[in-house]
Design brief:
With 207 residues, this protein is of the alpha+beta class. The chain has 2 domains: 36 residues, no CATH class; 155 residues, Jelly Rolls (Sandwich), CATH 2.60.120. It has 2 helices and 13 strands. The strands form 2 sheets. Strands 1, 2, 4, 7, 8, 10 and 13 form a 7-stranded antiparallel sheet that branches. A 6-stranded antiparallel sheet has the order 6-5-9-3-11-12, with no helix packed on it. Helix 1 packs antiparallel against helix 2. The protein is globular. The N and C termini lie close together (11 Å). The N terminus and C terminus are likely disordered.
Length: 207
Amino acid sequence: MAKTCIAAFALLCLLLAALPAWADYNNGPINGTVDAWTINFGFVLSDSFVPDGNPVHGFEFGAWEFSGDTMLSVDWSITSDELGGGTLGSGTAVTTDRFISVNQYGYNIDEITVTGLDVEVTAGNHYWLNLGNAVMSSGDPVYWDENSGIGCSSPGCPSEASASATGTLPTEAFTINTGEQPTPEPSTFLLFASGVLGAAGVLRRRM
């Protein structure tokens, strides 16, 4: 009986290894070399995403900034419609600004992080992340990095995108964070299951 229970537990671990882990929505890495679109001075940019069903707790996006500049805050909303219709959550977020590189045009390429959100969404639905009224330390313009969704790794990507002033655009670089506890990767499960199998062998010899 003990041998049967141990074997069943080990098999369960191996089956869990084959289950996909929930993941944040990732529209691809920051490019920083092609183009970017204004998200202050009255301009609003909107990109779609498909969530995994967990609440949205934050996001990151790529920005082009003038040398020495820092983003202080940005107005955001998550909506069911493009450019702000059907609001699920909105506000002005204090931002964290991390320098990455300087591009060929002399702009600083930075990763902007927003945390502390709690927006309920439904898995599989299309929503829109809208950004505007970004405040820079210098008062200069700032631009959301365009990446055309190259390298995106989530269901529903690449995103659709549009701007309040120009209409449809190529999509931008951003990640939607659900804030879910990290799920062990399949390799982790396999290692765990292998350990269980080894323990089963030890117990079998003792029995």
